Amino acid sequence: MSGEESKFLLGKFITREHYDYIIANDNWSQIVSPIIPEKYAPESPQALVFAELVNNSIRFCLDQNYSFEKLSTFVGVMLETHARSMVPHTLARTAQKTFNDLMMMHSVHRPPFSIQVFAPSDLAEVTDFFVRGYMRAFKLYLYVFTPRPVLDLVTQNVGIEFPVLKPEPLAKATMEVEPEPEEEPEDEEEAAEEDQTSADQVISDVVDQMAEQGGVDKEKLRVAIKEAMEAEMAKFKAEITAKLQSTLAPAEEPVTKEKGKEHK
């Protein structure tokens, strides 16, 4: 086979002698065993699954009464697609594209780029077999034939020494209670003076702002504002006192009645 023809899969895995042996015998282990890659140990899961893939491909070709050229090429397409696809994280559509490209390479007579082994009518049945027999279990093939990464975690002492804490014996333990800070009583007179100072400051600020607008007597304005504020405060205190008395009155009535009964 010339260098240009080496890319074609006709006779790569199944030769004419292999084909004659397959036709004459039901047990093909003598033909399949040499095809299994040497990297797979005998009786290993990879070797058994690979042998099953080859057997299923050959059986499909015999059921379709394929000639030597078609059987040899189709087995080659299946195994070549499998070899290119068994890479970690390969997508199913990538394997499908590989199969389609290899089939087209062997279905159109355009040497040296392609040769015609399969007829257009063959493409539908071989594609159906590939989808049902291989793509349906594609993830299982990936699981069997691709290496699985194993993560080993090793702890290493870098020489950092941590102090060992030794708790004190319970016999030496003492209850330490921090005294609560005493609240200093507020002087009512000082609080009243502070409120008055704040009120005077507010009045002064208002008078200054209105005086800036012009034509205002500051002293008269100060007295008027102060009187208005005192009147409002007196009114507010009266309303609060009235509300408190109305709220407490219903609670005191039953007590008054009971006392009256006892007096009688």
Automatic annotation (TrEMBL):
Residues 171-214 are annotated as: Disordered. The keyword Zinc does not apply. Transmembrane segments: none annotated. Pfam families: CLAMP. Keywords: Cell projection, Cilium, Flagellum. The keyword Ubl conjugation does not apply. InterPro entries: CLAMP. Residues 177-197 have a biased composition (Acidic residues). This is Flagellar C1a complex subunit C1a-32.
